[in-house]
């Protein structure tokens, strides 16, 4: 029996253009109304997740910044993992490298990030990774942004820590995602599933691959596993 859901946001609840699926919102509300906690787990910042949680109607339990931050409920203390100072150092090196080629990078909400660094996908993620190959920092391409995260921090590690705060274990969760940054979370959860638009990494780690893409895929996955949930 599963007890909770942890889901990615961009590309799982939203389409390619980041428009949220209203069907996915309905599916989350049905779970929440049945007493099944739903955690939003994203590369996005805490403040953007907070607004979504309020408007969708979850209890505010989140994993943000690709596992760099996590919190149980709205009133819980925001936990910060990893080393943003080292990610910043990596970013400076990347910035310098591309500046020599005449390319300027665009940071995403640096003032609201406590753990990772995110910037626009205007340069090659593989080239970015090569520049910082000797540093303990991972380059993550989510399909929406390039993130720099301290080694050993992921949505998967945050899931283990958040689950404990919720009185649960990762095995109690159904995890849903679409991108490279969801692979560890999908591996760690009791069952992992991906939407039809997922990239090969998380797809290979998942027990189930939805036929449908984006929000419709999320709804398909929730329907499939709904009988295996314990309602509270
Ligand atoms: O922040 C990103 O780059 C992608 O966000 P996601 O983890 O919700 O897909
Ligand atoms: Mg995603």
From TrEMBL:
Pfam families: Hydrolase_3. The keyword Magnesium applies. InterPro entries: HAD-like_sf, HAD-SF_hydro_IIB, HAD_sf, PGPase. Mg(2+) binds at residues 8, 10, 178, 182. One of its GO terms (cellular component) is cytosol. Keywords: Carbohydrate metabolism, Hydrolase, Magnesium, Metal-binding. Its EC number is 3.1.3.18. GO terms for molecular function: magnesium ion binding; phosphoglycolate phosphatase activity. The keyword Metal-binding applies. It catalyses: 2-phosphoglycolate + H2O = glycolate + phosphate. It comes from the Archaea. Its cofactor is Mg(2+). The active site is at 8 (nucleophile). Transmembrane segments: none annotated. Substrate binds at residue 155. HAMAP family: GPH_hydrolase_arch. Catalyzes the dephosphorylation of 2-phosphoglycolate. NCBIfam families: HAD-SF-IIB, Pglycolate_arch, PRK01158.1, SPP-subfamily. Belongs to the archaeal SPP-like hydrolase family. This is Phosphoglycolate phosphatase. The lineage of its organism: Archaea, Methanobacteriati, Methanobacteriota, Stenosarchaea group, Methanomicrobia.
């Amino acid at each position: 029996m599963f007890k909770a859901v942890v889901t990615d946001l961009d590309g799982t609840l939203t389409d390619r253009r980041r428009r949220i699926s209203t069907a996915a919102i309905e599916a989350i509300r049905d779970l929440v109304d049945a007493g099944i906690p739903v955690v939003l787990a994203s590369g996005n910042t805490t403040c953007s997740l907070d607004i979504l949680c309020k408007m969708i109607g979850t209890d505010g339990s989140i994993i943000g910044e690709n596992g760099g931050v996590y919190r149980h409920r709205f009133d819980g203390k925001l936990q910060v993992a990893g080393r943003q100072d080292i990610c910043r150092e990596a970013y400076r090196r990347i910035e310098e490298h591309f500046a020599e080629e005449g390319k300027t990078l665009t940071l995403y909400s640096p003032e609201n990030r406590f753990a990772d660094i995110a910037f626009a996908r205007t340069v090659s993620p593989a080239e970015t990774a090569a520049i910082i190959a000797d540093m303990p920092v991972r380059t993550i391409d989510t399909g929406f942004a390039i993130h720099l995260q301290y080694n050993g921090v992921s949505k998967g590690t945050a899931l283990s820590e958040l689950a404990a705060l919720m009185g649960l274990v990762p095995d109690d969760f159904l995890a849903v995602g679409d991108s490279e940054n969801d692979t560890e979370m999908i591996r760690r959860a009791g069952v992992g599933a991906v939407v039809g638009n997922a990239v090969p990494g998380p797809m290979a780690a998942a027990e189930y691959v939805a036929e449908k893409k984006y929000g419709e895929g999320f709804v398909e996955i929730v329907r499939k596993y709904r009988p295996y949930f314990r309602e509270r």
